[in-house]
Amino acid sequence: MAAKAGDNPDSLMTLATVFCLRNLRKTMCYQGFRNKLCLRSDIFLPSEICDKLVNTYMELVHTDSNFEPEESFFQLFSDPRSTRLTRVQLREDFVRDRDLEAIRKQDLIELHLTYCNSLSSRSLKTLTCFRETLVSLCLFGCTHIFYRKGGAPLACNEDTEDEEEESPASRQMLETDFNFQGFNRLRLLNLGGLPDEVDAETLLKPLKSLTSLDLSNVQLLGTAFLTQWKDRLASLVLYNVDLSEELVNTVVEIVNLSYETEHLDISRESRRTSKFKMTRKILTAIVQRLVNLVSLDISGHVMLDNCTVPHFEEAMGRPSIEPCKSSIYPFQELKRPLQFLGLYDTTLCNVTHIPAYKVTGSKNEDQVLNAIEAYTEFRPELAHRAINQLFDIARIQHCSQLLRALQLVIAALKCHKYDKSVQVTGSAALFYLTNTEYRSDQSVRLRREVIQVVLNGMEQYQEVTVQRNCCLTLCNFSIPEELEFQYSRVNQLLLKILEPARQDESIQRIAVHLCNALVCQVDNHHKEAVGKMGFVKTMLNLIQKKLQDRMCDQVMEFSWSALWNITDETPDNCQMFLNCRGMSLFLECLQEFPDKQELHRNMLGLLGNVAEVKVLRPQLLTPQFISVFSNLLDSKADGIEVSYNACGVLSHIMFDGPDVWSMEEPRRDTVMDKMWDAIQSWDVSSRRNINYRSFEPILRLLPQSISPVSQHWATWALYNLVSVYPLKYCPLLIKEGGISLLEKVLELESSQPETKDMASKVMEQCENFKEHPMETNHGQEVNYGQRG
Question: Is 50 helix (H, G, I), strand (E, B) or coil?
């Protein structure tokens, strides 16, 4: 059997790393002084393991809400004699100055800090501790690292390790003492987002050996300083740098002097924000002078029409990557196809022949996926636009690269958990990428990844669009089965959505539907746990609001259905229902909506669950409630369902005997007569809107003589279910010992003749099923409803 998309298991290294991080005190650490986490003295870890521990730790912090960060985690790597770090990637505001200071004795080769806005100029001082070994450094989006915190001078003091660092660095105190003097091994540097106040030229001057430089979103006063790397610069990124023809020519001249230059990026976020226009002359100069070029990004530029071959002159045949057939004139001079060509948000991506193996653009699915892949990490503003285009492809057309599409969207949502635009478009794309059309191609592992990033979005954003998209995406999964591994978390999030007094109507409807599905067909311990989260009270609050609005809609009906499900065989939840004025709301709903059949069925099903709990039945035994149940015996709503459920409630009450019947009206005998009449009016072949997981509450009514009508109701219920749905209910009845209890019904003198006759038919039906299991199914084996 072929593996489904995304079914590759985690490596043993990954599994072991995650396990250790979730169980630090049981594996490699102990609790030290002042509860400080300390590494055991017999632990010595090489760089391969330490790097994996730190980088996986950061991923868990950002993507797993159940993972608890450790205050002193980075202190575990403070001593290079027992732990070795070489390649570390840290991102977002979670990283603080003291975390970097904790590892300052390590001989780091790579340090990537991305969007670490909690870092101040204290961390610049820490960087100097790595100057002799650092080869690759990224400070992308770390806008506060060049400013002093609270006006404090640049310092790296061991006494400040435990200092609280809650406030970001002040943007008013620019750090002027730092430079890259001594970083002689540094080859790759990313300063994307460098504040305008920082002079890039002065900052970079000491670095003589750079081979890769990223100055995205940096304001440059000039580019002459780039000449210091003219003999070695292999990659230059000037994304969103204000360009002019003169500046581009200067850049081309400089990198032309370096025969090593393979990657040039002069792209922009959008054509709308640029005065510069890309001409055929400029593009030709780039191609001609950069003879070793393998990667070029000119996305977001206005392209003059003279760059492209007229359609009628284009080479015939299928799209080609051969430079000689290029539909873009300047690229016809390439010696070989480019490995990568960024044409996103340009007109050039729409031409037929593009001489590159990988192209970003918006013409087709492949270009869009390439754009998401290329721009997710450092350009979320472009990634979210590309994801939006993928959304249209999945919604209107068909996504042919499903696994890649899902993995890229998941990666974008994980990477930019705090970017609202990415979360909105990503969650919308996931809705279409996980629907029925694509479901059969997806593995359990991949679908679980989707669920986790969806729940991350729900946790982070209370905004209507994100919440709606996430809830709709969850509806694409088999509930509760596929959500069970995150059962508690998803219920908490849904209940949080339903807390506000006035919620968006569509979100409320979807969330209640999900809540209902989540408590249907799950174990009782799940229901009890959800009940303790406030599930019952939340549903009753929704019902109360709908009553105030005099509106019986899907939210109202789903809320009662959810209460029916969560109270099934869970006495504590039944008690909560009564304690939270549930019976008052039941009566109000009956009075306000007398003709709503579905509503009545759900409410009576719920009360059937309450009536099964012996200690709670006295609360139902009032003249008002008994009269209501008795009147509902005559109901024809939803076939026999309302009448059947009302009779079930009364059957359990009658089972407690005449001694508990303290009221004068209605009389017990009168109510029992009405119950007999109701049962005899039902068609025993009726198809049901109900689903029993256990017959135990019914079976307890069989071997007794206190209430023959209760016994008859129970026998009728069994006969109806085993004759209409034999494949499902004959095995259940046999398994739960129902046959021996029916035999006792036949032995009891108090059992009515019609009850004994029906009991015999139930036993006969089960006997036939055991002999010929496939021949007893007289109806379609489908159950649409639920029982509690």
Answer: helix
